[in-house]
Amino acid sequence: MKRIRTLYWPAVWDTLALLLWGLMLLRYWWSGRLAVLLHPDYHWLAIGAGWVLVGMGLWRGVTLFRPTPPSASAGAHIALLPRQWSLMVLLAIAVFGLIYVPRPFASDAALARGIADPVALTRSQPQQFARQTPPAERSLIDWIRTLNVYPEPDAYTDQPVNVTGFVIHPPQWDDNYLMVARFVLTCCAADAYPVGLPVELTGDRAEFPPDSWISVQGEMQTETLDGQRRLVIAPQEVLTVPEPKNPYEF
């Protein structure tokens, strides 16, 4: 009579955890959502980890069919949680990651982090800055970095500006002002911080809802906004545009 093999459940859970974590990372890559979570310089690490975890999961799965089941004591180590609990936590996170669709940060997160004072939020503190990029080609983060080094707004009056970002309605500003903003990523979404520039509209900002994406072309001017002298965009054209594939700046 043929003997029915008993499943070795610890190895089954190991296999599932490795495969699900690998598939979760690869899913973010395939769906293009990895850019929402990580700086592009680190994408290869996440993609490589995904393939390695899938390979390890397949290898672990093959051991289930060997005549001698894998030993639970192999590779034993000290852990804070019992092995079963750790595996359940890993599996739950992997399943959540496979279901959840990450979204980029939006205006509510920017307001919570104090976007109304954008220059003070810039984390880079350059000692020297060569303004080689023409004003019309500067991105939002280029403008903020430039202001960090040369903070006098009058130095940029009448300079052309052409930037793209999402819309924020700072509650303390009048209804003809909005902010065009981007989040800056240095490593991953956990360290993202917002930067932005005020835009003075000729009409009401309600035409551009919060979190919608706009392209603003115009000139720089100096105004007193919220009790501070600020560099403000006087737009010649404001267009609604689709959210870019990568919504962050670096």
3D structure, described in words:
The chain has 250 residues and is of the alpha+beta class. It is 34% helix and 22% strand. The chain has 2 domains: 9-66 and 80-99; 107-240, OB fold (Dihydrolipoamide Acetyltransferase, E2P). The protein has 7 helices and 6 strands; from the N terminus they run H-H-H-H-H-H-H-E-E-E-E-E-E. Strands 1, 2, 3, 4, 5 and 6 form a 6-stranded mixed sheet that branches. The relative contact order is 0.13. The mean pLDDT is 84.
CATH domain fold name of the largest domain: OB fold (Dihydrolipoamide Acetyltransferase, E2P)
Q: If classified by CATH, what would the architecture of the largest domain be?
A: Beta Barrel
Low-confidence stretches: none
CATH top level of the largest domain is Mainly Beta
- Global outline: elongated
Number of domains as seen in the coordinates: 2
Largest sheet descriptor: 6 strands, mixed
Helix content: 25-40%
Individual helix count: 7
Order of helices and strands: HHHHHHHEEEEEE
CATH superfamily of the largest domain: Nucleic acid-binding proteins
Oligomer class: single chain
Average pLDDT score = 84
**What Rg is obtained from the alpha carbons, in whole angstroms?**
25 Å
User: Strand pairing plus helix content: what structural class?
Assistant: alpha+beta
Keywords: Membrane, Transmembrane, Transmembrane helix
Organism: Leptolyngbya iicbica LK
Protein name: TIGR03943 family protein
